[in-house]
Amino acid sequence: MTDDTWGQVCNELQKAVGQNNYTTWIAPLELIDLEDGIASFQAPTKFMCDWVSRNFAEPILSELRRAGVSAERVNISVPSRRPMNGTANGATRPTVPAPAPVAKPRKTPRPDEPLPGAPLDSRFTFDSFVVGKPNELAHAAAKRVAEGGPVTFNPLFLYGGVGLGKTHLMHAIAHDLQHQRPDLRVLYLSAEQFMYRFVQALREKQIMDFKEMFRSIDVLMVDDVQFIAGKDSTQEEFFHTFNALVDQGKQIVISADRAPGEIKDLEERIKSRLSCGLVVDLHPTDYELRLGILQTKTEAYKSEYPDLKIAPGVLEFVAHRITSNVRILEGALTRLFAYGSLIGREITMDLAQECLKDQLRQSERKVTVEEIQRKVAEHYNVRLSDLVGPKRLRAIARPRQVAMFLAKSLTTRSLPDIGRRFGGRDHTTIMHGIRKIEELRGTDSQLAEDIELLRRLLES
Ligand code: ADP
Ligand code: MG
Known about the structure:
Layout: H1 3-17, H2 19-26, E1 30-35, E2 38-42, H3 46-55, H4 57-66, E3 73-77, H5 136-146, E4 156-160, H6 166-180, E5 186-190, H7 191-203, H8 207-215, E6 219-223, H9 232-247, E7 251-256, H10 268-274, E8 278-282, H11 287-302, H12 314-321, H13 326-343, H14 349-355, H15 357-362, H16 369-380, H17 384-388, H18 394-410, H19 415-421, H20 427-443, H21 445-459
Parallel strand pairs: 2-3, 4-7, 4-8, 5-6, 6-7
Antiparallel strand pairs: 1-2
Helix pairs in contact: 1-2, 1-4, 5-6, 7-8, 11-12, 11-13, 16-18, 16-21, 18-20, 19-20, 20-21
Bound molecules: adenosine-5'-diphosphate and magnesium ion.
């Protein structure tokens, strides 16, 4: 494709995605290659690369095709960093990662040869992992394995729902080991890749090489092991590999989406082998962990977007309302930042609500304004009728404002709507009440605590 063609495609894209989007997201892209149906671009920042991959890959492809260029995929990368292909399961990773290189284990690699494992995501380190109650045990156990000392528990079995950090921890272990114990042969791969290699070895009659290769590993990490359930010969081979390594005192780390005993169609003997080390679960995130993650990631983004400003309370709001998993939480943050940088304004609460409408709707809690009023009245020991009534006494007015504030941040009701539920008050009164609390919260720690407590009560 000539530069001219790309120029034409750009013109069309401008019309398709709008001038603003075009200037912000498409214009900075540099087309570097078009081969085998893959259009490769470079973007100046990782953030940009993620955003464009997720939101503009389709329009780019369709405009390319309309210009007569045969393109199947768009691949956007950042020039200076290492490529981050591999286990593409993160919300902020490019939608079209390069396939994991699958090397054929033709012979036992020499100790100085790199093992053909899945690529590691350079961002998944212990430094970037935020520790909280729900994951502290898993984190501590992973840290222990990462020291590369004598094996204390075998295997380490990490389990938990999707997006809670299992893969992140395994990569972190691998990174640390590569640094601290370069003498150890560490292999990280998904159970799916294990199966793929196994089947390939069978097909190419290289099963002995396969076995030898796997038995020469010092630390084996297999991600998402539930995948092999029901796949009988793979299960069998996995079991033998597992036993051989454990017998040699080699460390094994396994992850799955549930406890060993609960994986359906997994042989009993495998279940019991998997359970005999340390089994740790990653619990669903709690509010504190979510907030910690949002704060850490916001700090990380700041270097890329020094001008970006977030109003107080916005991260708290997101942490409170998006409760599903870390991947979705990260996605929400990416969206928020992109939105903020696009319109070039501070990210306020209103903006956040607007921008995250869809995500918020999905995780809508069933908290109602009435419920909030009831809990607040109870907490401050005032009558519900007074809380929504006309009295202006400080002892009632303040709790009322707290209730208004919570109604705005915990429900999707509009201000006029909330006003109606507070004895037909005007929306400006509600807004005033919310502002007052936002203001006081910064200086009045008792008030801040009350609000947190109420939040949690209502959340549970
Ligand atoms: P899982 O393998 O359990 O499905 P991942 O390890 O892929 O989940 O995590 C999903 C995303 O959330 C990743 O981008 C990861 O970096 C991030 N993440 C999960 N837990 C944490 C945490 N405690 N601190 C920081 N990031 C986290
Ligand atoms: Mg994973």
